[in-house]
């Protein structure tokens, strides 16, 4: 019998899982930049939304929070939340992401 309701999975969240599989850990803005280079462009809010949602369902975990001082447009500090893969993440080993990381290393 088919399950009712909206499916839990998301293509954007799965693509973020693929990126984190290769790079290990990253913060939201960094993930957004890489996502736009690799896949169809999207807004930062979409990436942040999927990071929050993925954290709630166990696909991502908060690795660390760095408090960075600087001269930002919104104030004198920023909190960078680093994410890593959680226990419920199911990476599919994307060839596109692996090739992209290899090309950046050169």
Question: What would you say about this model in short?
Answer:
This protein is α+β, with helices and mostly antiparallel strands. Helix content is 46%, strand content 25%. Strand 2 and strand 3 form a beta hairpin.
What is the number of helical segments per DSSP (H or I, 4+ residues)? 4
Instruction: Write the element-wise H/E pattern from the N-terminal end onward.
Output: HEHHEEH
**CATH-defined architecture:** Orthogonal Bundle
Helicity range: 40-55%
CATH C-level class is Mainly Alpha
Shape: globular
Secondary structure category: alpha+beta
Radius of gyration: 15 Å
- Provide the low-confidence segments as ranges: none
- Overall tally of structural domains: 1
Q: What is the distance, rounded to the nearest whole angstrom, between the alpha carbons of the first and last residues?
A: 50 Å
Look up the CATH topology. Arc Repressor Mutant, subunit A
Global mean pLDDT: 91
The total strand number stands at 3
Task: Name the CATH homologous superfamily.
Answer: Winged helix-like DNA-binding domain superfamily/Winged helix DNA-binding domain
Structural overview:
Strand 2 (60-72) and strand 3 (75-85) form a beta hairpin. The longest helix is centred in the middle third of the chain and has 14 residues, at 44-57. The model has no long low-confidence stretch (mean pLDDT 91). The protein has a single domain (11-105), classed as Winged helix-like DNA-binding domain superfamily/Winged helix DNA-binding domain (Arc Repressor Mutant, subunit A). It contains four helices and three strands, in the order H-E-H-H-E-E-H. A three-stranded antiparallel sheet has the order 1-3-2. By secondary structure, it is α+β, with helices and mostly antiparallel strands.
């Amino acid at each position: 019998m088919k399950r009712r309701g909206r499916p839990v999975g998301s293509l954007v969240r799965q693509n973020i899982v693929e990126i984190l599989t290769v790079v290990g850990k990253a913060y939201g803005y960094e993930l957004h930049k890489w996502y736009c280079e690799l896949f169809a462009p999207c807004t930062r809010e979409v990436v942040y939304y999927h990071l929050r949602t993925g954290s709630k369902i166990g696909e991502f975990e908060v690795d660390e929070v760095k408090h960075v001082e600087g001269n930002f447009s919104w104030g004198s500090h920023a909190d960078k939340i680093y994410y890593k893969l959680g226990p419920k993440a199911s990476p599919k080993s994307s060839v596109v992401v692996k090739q992209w990381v290899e090309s950046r290393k050169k």
